[in-house]
Design brief:
Elements lengths: L28 E2 L15 E2 L3 H11 L9 H12 L2 H6 L1 H6 L10 H18 L3 H4 L6 E2 L10 E3 L2 E3 L5 E2 L4 H5 L7 H7 L8 H21 L9
Antiparallel strand pairs: 1-2, 3-6, 4-5, 5-6
Length: 226
């Protein structure tokens, strides 16, 4: 199974979101400690990057059309790198036992291309409605909406013998994030429960996000050292 231990959140998360035993939370910004009188000035908000490496990335990413990247563009570049299939394959052995190392971009154009795709992924994973768009996987069949035995068959995700999400992408059903398959786990966690209207809409968005994540990942190309 390919390495997939990376995700983004704009809200507090379970520290064991991937595996029991904890993980690493890497905030983009560091805020002052409100309980410390010496750190109550909001002007003290800092970008959580090594400044030397940040400046180097800004230099390498400086582009005549886009200028020097700010912290969000750098964040998106890093997020794009970590979702690059070639990166995950090339450094598979290192990723099993060490912290991910982020390669320098070969050119400013490569930086901005990877950053743009990382931004698409970030917005999808934060469930930005504009990024997700329509999710055309109609919930079909008569029944009580009870999740009994989730299965995928012939482009349909069944929650019970009679009800299913139609035209569902198989890639969404099988897609891994953090060692889990979200499309399967979300339903399995709701066995014995009836899906509400909002549950159905939410699950349709999940399927769209996973499908789009796979599509975008396949477009991320980088020059990597072996």
């Amino acid at each position: 199974m390919q390495w997939s231990l990376v995700f983004v959140s704009s809200t507090p998360i379970d520290f064991n979101v991937f595996y029991r035993g904890g993980g690493l939370l890497l905030p983009l910004y560091l805020y002052p400690d409100q309980s410390n009188p010496d750190q109550q000035n909001l002007d003290q908000i800092q970008v959580n990057f090594n400044l030397e490496l940040y400046r180097r990335l800004q230099e390498l990413g400086s582009h005549p059309a886009y200028g020097a990247p700010d912290e969000m563009a750098v964040f998106d570049y890093i997020y794009g790198v970590l979702h690059c299939p070639a990166y995950r394959k090339t450094y598979a052995e290192f990723l099993k036992a060490d912290f991910p190392r982020i390669p320098w971009p070969a050119t400013p154009a490569e930086f901005w291309d990877v950053s743009a795709k990382g931004a698409e992924l970030r917005k999808l994973h934060l469930m930005d409605p504009a990024a997700i768009g329509p999710a055309h996987y109609p919930f079909t069949g008569e029944g009580d909406n009870m999740v009994r035995r989730p299965t995928f068959k012939n482009g349909r995700i069944y929650i019970n013998a009679d009800q299913y999400f139609d035209s569902a992408p198989e890639v969404s059903w099988n897609f891994y994030i953090g060692g889990y398959q979200p499309a399967r786990k979300w339903l399995k966690d709701r066995k014995g429960r009836s899906l509400t209207f909002e549950d159905v809409k939410h699950y349709q968005r999940i399927l769209k996000i996973l499908s789009e994540t796979d599509r975008i990942m396949r477009t991320i190309n980088m020059t990597l050292a072996h």
